[in-house]
Design goal:
Helix content is 80%, strand content 0%. The chain is mostly helical.
Length: 122
């Protein structure tokens, strides 16, 4: 894979994971002010923000091993984000329609990050 293509992919995906964090922050602000919504919402904020932060760290990795280690955290945290969204829906804290976009985005990020042979961006 040509280096520019790797760099372009990394830039697009870095922006996408950052947007995922910002969108989750905005969603958190809309949650009901109940204790359970706050607790689960904070869990979602932690895991979704870890997606963006760890992909950014992966792009600055000093080795392929470090890159793959950070990328594995992105996979775990994207999956955890999807889990907390499921809990918010199944506990009837929010309607499924309120999380359609974010849940879809979490699962797409998860699939992309977990795909075999993800290129080291350098």
């Amino acid at each position: 894979m040509e280096n520019n293509t790797k760099t372009d992919f990394a830039e697009v995906f870095r922006n996408r994971t950052k947007k995922f964090v910002v969108d989750n922050i905005k969603f958190f602000r809309t949650l009901p002010k109940t204790e359970e919504a706050k607790i689960i919402g904070r869990q979602l904020l932690r895991s979704s923000s870890s997606v963006g932060a760890n992909y950014r760290a992966a792009c600055r990795a000093r080795s392929k091993a470090e890159f793959h280690a950070k990328l594995s955290i992105v996979v775990e945290e994207a999956d955890e984000s999807a889990f907390w969204m499921e809990i918010l829906i199944e506990a009837e804290i929010v309607k499924p329609s309120e999380l359609n976009y974010l849940n879809d985005e979490a699962n797409q990020i998860l699939k992309i990050a977990a795909a075999p042979g993800k290129p080291y961006p350098r």
